[in-house]
Amino acid sequence: MRLWDDLTADIGLDLGFRRCGLVYATHDEAVLARWESWREITREGRPGSKSRCAVAIAPGKIGALMTDNRGRARRAPKGRGVFLNPDEQLRLEWRCARLIALYANLNDEARWEEVAALFAEDGVLLRPTAPDVPIAGREAILAAFRARPARKTRHVCSNVVIDVDGPAHARGVSAMLLYTGDGPPAVGWFRDRFVLTPDGWRFAERHGSLSFGG
Q: Which of 35, 93, 146, 160 has the fewest CB atoms nearer than 10 Å to its CB?
């Protein structure tokens, strides 16, 4: 890195070179502690070397270690943002929005096992028709769907907005129309929390409510 500094000084021009740190993301305090420990070791540099290594840790809501452009590390306040490039953020938003569409389609086809599989193992569902009655756990959600009387439905979801909270967490809101062929459709919404699991993105919570109808 001194090469760039010396060259800039020799020719008197800014070559655009900037020092920067690394960025890691986590929501786990234990992982954060390990990375902090690693940072303390690496910042000392190797014996006989003038190089330094600094790590910026961005866990979203837990706290962070940030570096300035010279590698000096400091603890950042809790709630600091999450470092995702725009392409990755769009991918995460698409994956979560797809869960919303899958929930509607699979629900209409009465494919209950696949509907339940959209939830994390400890996921929670609050139906629009019973927004104050949580159904906790994938198995309980499956049992609740299996207990429903057979009926024909068509769910229409729109106005989907996904907010990414980090590489493994997101929130969403969507409008919902439910057609049953019996009178006007029910109109409501879902507020969702999403989590990245070993099996991919899943609902951590679906909280539904009716605006009118139903």
A: 146
